[in-house]
Every structure is written in C-alpha cells, then in structure tokens.
Amino acid sequence: MEAGALSTPVLRARRNLKDRIGDPLLRGLSGLAAALAVVLLGAIAYEVIHLAAPAISQFGIGFVTTNDWNPVTERFGAAPFLYGTVVTSAIALLFAAPLSIAISLYLTELAPRRMRRPVATLVDMLAAIPSVILGLWGILVLGPFMHATIEPALKSVLGFLPIFSGEPSAFGYLTAAAILTIMTTPIITSVTR
User: Fold this and answer.
1) How far apart are CA 49 and CA 69, in angstroms?
2) HEC states along 82-116?
3) Which tens digit of pLDDT belongs to each residue from 105-122?
4) DSSP class of residue 167?
5) Mean pLDDT score across all residues of the chain
6) How far is CA 123 from CA 101, 107, 177, in A?
7) 173-192 vs 113-127: helix axis angle to the nearest 10?
8) Residue 100: C-alpha distances to residues 7, 85, 116 (Å)
9) Where are the beta strands (DSSP E) in 20-170?
10) Tens of pLDDT along 69-108?
C-alpha cells in the first residue's frame, strides 16, 4: 500500500474570483512599494550629494577626512563628527539589539497575559518621546550621572580597554550611546515583536 493512501485527503476551499484578483493585486502593490522605497533612497542620496556639492567644491573631499574646524581661517573638517556618529551608533546598536530582542521574546513568549499589554504599552510610549526631549534629558540628567557614577566605575573595572582609559566625560561617547540606545530600543522591540 502507498503511504499517501493511508493519510486523509486535504480538503481545499474553493477560491472565488475576488481571491484570485486580490493575490496579484497585493503582489503588484508590494512590488510598487518596494520600488518606491528604492527610488526614495536614491532621491535622498541625490539630494545629500547635491546639497553637499558646494562644500565639497570649495573645501575638497578632504572636508570629510580632516579634523580642522576653524571658521576664522575657513578650514573645516567633518571627520570627528562622522567618527562620533559611527561609534555612538555602533555602541547603541550593540546594546539595543539584544535588549530589544529580549524584551520582545519576554512579551510574546514568557510574560503572563495580564502583564503583556501594560509592558508593551510602556515600551511603545517610550518611542513617543521626542528625540529633542531625550537629548535634553541626556545633557541635564544622564550626562552628570554618567560622569559622576557610571564612567568612574567602568574605568576602575575596565580601564585596560581603550574606550574606558580616558577621563570620564558627561558628554562623551558612552552618554550619547546610552541616549541612542533608549531611542532605538522601542523601535527595534516593536519590529521584532
């Protein structure tokens, strides 16, 4: 006897005309949305390059690689700003991604039913706080706390690492990364959930 003869046949529901039209329509709309996203990214890249062209033509491509910032002599360099952006963003993603995935797993798999909605609402409300408010809170509250408490403790334990070997700063990479972590955690959590 064949193995297929022992199993019960799978009953398939008949699809009507609306269902057959909806599938290609959804596929077409999804493809259009994907193409629109690519076009939008290209337009953003074009606009950035177009608006940066006067600075690049006047100061050269060295504008991106030099450290000078002297308005009196009209010498400008964006390297420290670019480096700081990359470092703080990398540190923030290093902290935010595992934290967000853990929150998502807790909310979807482990949390009791009565806890899921309040915790998810609190995480989502964190995303509603404007970045300007979080930045000001970081400068006025988190920065001094990091300078006085967290960074000296990290330096005493992890001072052999180059990132912790310098003097503690209220406005350093770690403070900026902590603020970015707070900003990105609810977004990553909602996407992974």
Assistant:
1) 21
2) HHHHHHHHHHHHHHHHHHHHHHHHHHHHHCCHHHH
3) 999 999 898 988 998 899
4) -
5) 85
6) 13, 10, 19
7) 130
8) 43, 21, 15
9) 69-70, 75-76
10) 888 887 878 888 889 899 999 999 999 999 999 999 999 9
